[in-house]
């Protein structure tokens, strides 16, 4: 007598899960932009002012940029297209508002700009040391390493002077980020007459 055969069909072989679709870069909430700034770093620059800042410094130059719910939302690719349309400059400044309160979006933008050869400055009310330690966002150190210069520290109205260059109050520092990370110590940026370079030809 033959043994009874198992009538249960074999389980189907597991199928590979489809690769996840690439995620779009985070959108940014902006206060505004300026495509011909000469006050947010050396040379002619494209300035990006993010919306939202919790520092609330008395005497802030852009108090309307402080509320997190203000401004307008723009996709990273659309902002990159606006910047690329300006053929007069290869230099961008991220200011605000507080760029490091939108770390993910600013990091995506900064990486795309650096990949295209832009010089990149960033302003923050946080200190360099705080940002390196991951405040207010774990991505803060990565954003720092993507930029060329950081102007750090809160604006202090009592320390304001119109004799200062690229900063509003004397407590703030203009920091050379590549040199600071290379030497593992804070290195102040030094002005160069030949900076920034002339726009590349298209």
Shape: globular
User: Low-confidence parts, pLDDT < 50 over ≥5 residues?
Assistant: 194-202
Output the helix-strand order.
Answer: EEEHEHEHHEEH
The tally of strands reads: 7
What characterizes the major β-sheet?
Answer: 7 strands, mixed
Give the overall pLDDT as a whole number. 88
Oligomer: single chain
Residues in β-strands, percent: 15-25%
| Class of secondary structure makeup | alpha/beta
- Separate helix tally: 5
> What's the end-to-end separation, in Å?
86 Å
Strand order of the largest sheet: 3-1-2-4-5-6-7
Helix fraction, binned, reads 10-25%
Please give the radius of gyration in angstroms.
Answer: 23 Å
Task: Give an overview in words.
The protein is an alpha/beta fold and 202 residues long. Helix content is 21%, strand content 18%. A 7-stranded mixed β-sheet has the order 3-1-2-4-5-6-7. The protein is globular and about 60 Å long. The relative contact order is 0.15. Mean pLDDT is 88; it is low at 194-202.
Summarize the helices and strands and which ones pair or pack.
Blueprint: E1 28-37, E2 45-50, E3 72-74, H1 76-85, E4 91-95, H2 103-115, E5 119-123, H3 128-132, H4 140-146, E6 149-152, E7 173-176, H5 177-183
Parallel strand pairs: 2-4, 4-5, 5-6
Antiparallel strand pairs: 1-2, 1-3, 6-7
Concise structural overview:
This protein has 202 residues and is of the alpha/beta class. The chain has helices at residues 76-85, 103-115, 128-132, 140-146, 177-183, and strands spanning 28-37, 45-50, 72-74, 91-95, 119-123, 149-152, 173-176.
């Amino acid at each position: 007598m033959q043994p009874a055969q198992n009538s249960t069909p074999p389980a189907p072989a597991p199928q590979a899960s489809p690769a996840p679709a690439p995620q779009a870069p985070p959108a940014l909430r902006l206060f505004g932009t300026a495509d011909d700034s000469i006050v947010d770093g050396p040379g002619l620059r494209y300035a990006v002012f993010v919306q939202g800042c919790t520092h609330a410094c008395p005497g802030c130059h852009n108090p309307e940029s402080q509320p997190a719910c203000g401004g307008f939302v723009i996709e990273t690719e659309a902002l990159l297209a606006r910047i690329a349309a300006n053929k007069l400059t290869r230099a961008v400044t991220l200011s605000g508002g507080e760029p490091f309160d939108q770390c993910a979006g600013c990091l995506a933008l900064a990486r795309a700009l650096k990949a295209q050869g832009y010089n990149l400055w960033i302003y923050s009310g946080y200190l360099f040391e705080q940002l390196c330690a991951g405040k207010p966002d774990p991505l803060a150190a990565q954003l720092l390493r993507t930029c060329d210069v950081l102007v750090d520290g809160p604006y202090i109205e009592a320390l304001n002077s119109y004799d200062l260059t690229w900063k509003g109050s004397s407590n703030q520092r203009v920091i050379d980020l590549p040199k600071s990370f290379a030497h593992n110590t804070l290195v102040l940026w030094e002005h160069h007459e030949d900076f920034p370079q002339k726009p590349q030809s298209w």
